[in-house]
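pinned: reference chain
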Amino acid sequence: QVQLVESGGGLVQAGDSLRLSCAASGRTFSTYTLGWFRQAPGKEREFVAAVNWNGGITSYVDSVKGRFTISRDNAKNTVYLQMNSLKPEDTAVYYCAATQAGSNSPRYWGQGTQVTVSS
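pinned: its structure tokens
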């Protein structure tokens, strides 16, 4: 069992930065691929970024490449999403997710944190 709790969201202006954190409980945290998803009002939830178990492999949706950076600290059971040069279209609820090895979809989700970017 893994429980995920996000923090760090807020209201910022276009061009600002935010860092989201996701604290996880569970002894097997380091074995999961961790990711961030987001859902804007009226839209489907979309993948944003993911990092493999040891932080050596990352992936991003094209719209955030070069602006967002995902990282993890297994000693602290925490995954981060550093978001720079934020745009109004980044406004969404951001969710942390944990995917077991060998699976294609997340098994555990956080409750989400709101990010609002004003123009």
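why pinned: DSSP finds no helices and eleven strands in the chain. The radius of gyration is 13 Å.
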